[in-house]
UniProtKB/TrEMBL annotation:
SUPFAM superfamilies: C-terminal effector domain of the bipartite response regulators (SSF46894), CheY-like (SSF52172)
Keyword DNA-binding: yes
Name of the protein this chain belongs to: Response regulator transcription factor
Response regulatory domain ranges (all copies): 10-126
Pfam family, one: GerE
Record region (Disordered): 144-188
Keywords, ordered alphabetically: DNA-binding, Phosphoprotein, Transcription, Transcription regulation
Low complexity: bias regions: 144-178
Modified residues (4-aspartylphosphate): 61
Keyword Phosphoprotein: yes
């Protein structure tokens, strides 16, 4: 007996340009593993469509009337954390990217992404993974390099043994412990929840976790509450013990 087919991913598409919006709806609806359940022309309509249809993911333009993409993302993350926000826009400047990621977006793509790339990103974001377009990654790296170049240099060279290595950043170590290579996670934890659990177990505060993962404080709180529920943890101490017991610290 063959296994039942997986349920198509339910998606809401939001873009203020009718031709773009309708094209995305048609393009995605042709894929067997995606079901477009609603579309919207502005941020307020997006909130209404998500409330009405409870999608798995929202494909969202950044610059829209009534509510822009960043504020819409912030509202969606607070009110509908189960819906993964994927930004699809022509803007890839560092301010737009950082503002949207901090608001709670799980993925950020530019509009030259093809249909399969968009579809894969929607599925990944709905599974709790973060995805950044290569152009967006380059923008963030350039911004980080510029900030580093402008920062004051110490009068004495730092000792090699005291210099943090890139592989030891909170994001990378959390991703490693969370099984970024595809290791199954216990008790239905998503990759994002496992990342946050790992950082909690290492003693990081909500504010520090939000800064490390480019999330809003409300988003971190929502994920932590879901971690507590899934791991049957009453507090952060119990969650840290769970993380150690399951190799997520």
């Amino acid at each position: 007996m063959s296994a039942p087919a997986a349920r198509p991913l339910r998606v809401v598409v939001a873009d203020d340009q009718a031709s773009v919006r309708e094209g995305l709806v048609l393009m995605l609806d042709l894929l067997p593993d995606i079901d477009v359940v609603g579309s919207a022309a502005n941020g307020q309509q997006t909130l209404e469509q998500v409330a009405a249809h409870r999608p798995d993911a929202v494909l969202l333009d950044l610059h829209m009337p009534v509510l822009d993409g960043t504020e819409t993302t912030r509202r969606l993350t607070a009110e509908h954390p189960e819906a993964a926000v994927v930004v699809l826009t022509t803007y890839a400047d560092d301010t737009s990217v950082l503002d949207t990621l901090r608001a709670g977006a799980r993925a950020y793509l530019t509009k030259d992404a093809d249909r399969l790339h968009i579809a894969r990103t929607l599925h990944s974001a709905a599974a709790g993974l973060s995805v950044l377009d290569p152009k967006v990654q380059a923008t963030l790296l350039a911004a980080a390099s510029g900030a580093q170049a402008q920062s004051p240099q110490p009068s004495q060279p730092s000792q090699p043994s005291q210099s943090p290595q890139p592989s030891q950043s909170p994001q990378s170590t959390a991703a490693d412990a969370a099984g970024s290579a595809g290791r199954p996670l216990p008790d239905g934890l998503t990759r994002r929840e496992a990342e946050i659990l790992t950082l909690m177990a290492r003693g990081m505060t909500n504010t520090e976790i939000a800064a490390a993962l480019f999330l809003s404080g409300n988003t971190v709180k929502t994920h932590i509450n879901r971690v507590f529920t899934k791991t049957c943890s009453r507090d952060r101490v119990a969650a840290a013990r769970y993380a150690r017991d399951h190799g997520l610290d």
